[in-house]
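Q: Given only this backbone (318 positions), what sequence would you predict?
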């Protein structure tokens, strides 16, 4: 019992606006129950194998260092997608006695692993390209090879955009990271096509490994960004946008109810968000009334979030 004088008053004050807000969103599907992320990951895995075979054939036809760079990046992508598919499955398992907060943190390991694989591919591409730049490349069947790379690049562009969209829609860092990797692969293919075209126009064979080196540097930059994102998530780095949105919701609700809050903090667990805060009530507020208000504020935050959200509130007196 916090108090008895204001029993039911806070409940009546905020019940209608909160309930109206929640009812308006009851038809929104739960991201955890959606099959779209799993289907998108399977599509990414199948496309990854197709891209790898296509680029390997293109490299065999042409002997191009730039196409080799593109194919090497696809090898990394297939390995990374396999790990991402496992991570997506594991992240959606419910909490258990040994993982009481769930398994969502695997998303950051997945992003970090994918970033590390991209960096590894970039180092390999740089090594091969420098070797070919020194020795002098020999190109054959450039037109046919370029056509295969063009097809692969177009498919990757569509797939990458789709994966990023599904990832953001469902609050899945794993899918979003995979989509950005696919888009990187698409940009790599476009760079290869530009390099091959310039090589044909100028007749300068060493332009091919030069383009491969530029592609490797771009891949290295993308990989380092994923690793940085992974580290930030594992270290519970605050997202200022999410923090501001939650603070705005709490300010709106508590001002209507005549109460206050403090101690707001949140953490991104990968595919979910954990939110904690303290609510401050007048001393004569009943425990029942205070608990009802806290529950409705928690529900409101959960329904306003694009990710699965766990909310914990602590009740105090002013």
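A: Predicted residues:
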């Amino acid at each position: 019992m916090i108090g008895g004088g204001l029993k039911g008053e806070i409940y009546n004050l905020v019940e209608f606006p909160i309930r109206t807000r929640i009812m308006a969103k009851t038809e929104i599907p739960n991201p955890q129950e959606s099959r779209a992320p799993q289907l998108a990951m399977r599509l990414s895995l199948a496309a990854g194998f197709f891209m790898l075979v296509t680029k390997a054939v293109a490299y065999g036809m042409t002997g191009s260092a730039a196409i080799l760079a593109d194919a090497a990046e696809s090898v990394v992508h297939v390995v990374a997608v396999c790990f991402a598919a496992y991570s997506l499955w594991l992240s959606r398992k419910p909490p258990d006695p040994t993982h009481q907060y769930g398994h969502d943190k695997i998303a950051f390991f997945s992003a970090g692993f994918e970033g590390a694989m991209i960096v590894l591919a970039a180092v390999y591409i740089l090594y091969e390209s420098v070797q070919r730049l020194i020795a002098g490349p020999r190109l054959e069947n450039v037109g046919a090879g370029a056509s295969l790379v063009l097809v692969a690049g177009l498919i990757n562009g569509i797939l990458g955009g789709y994966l990023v969209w599904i990832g953001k829609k469902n609050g899945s860092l794993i899918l979003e990271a995979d989509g950005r990797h696919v888009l990187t692969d698409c940009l790599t293919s476009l760079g290869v096509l530009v390099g091959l075209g310039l090589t044909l126009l100028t007749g300068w064979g060493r332009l091919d490994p030069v383009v491969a080196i530029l592609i490797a540097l771009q891949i290295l930059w993308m990989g380092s960004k994923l690793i940085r994102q992974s580290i930030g998530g594992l270290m519970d780095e605050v997202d200022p946008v999410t923090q501001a949105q939650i603070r705005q919701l709490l300010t709106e609700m508590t001002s209507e109810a005549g109460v206050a809050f403090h101690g707001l903090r949140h953490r991104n667990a990968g595919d979910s968000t954990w939110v904690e805060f303290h609510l401050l009530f007048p001393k004569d507020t009943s425990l029942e009334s205070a608990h009802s208000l806290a529950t409705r504020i928690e529900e409101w935050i959960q329904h306003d979030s694009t990710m699965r959200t766990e909310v914990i509130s602590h009740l105090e007196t002013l």
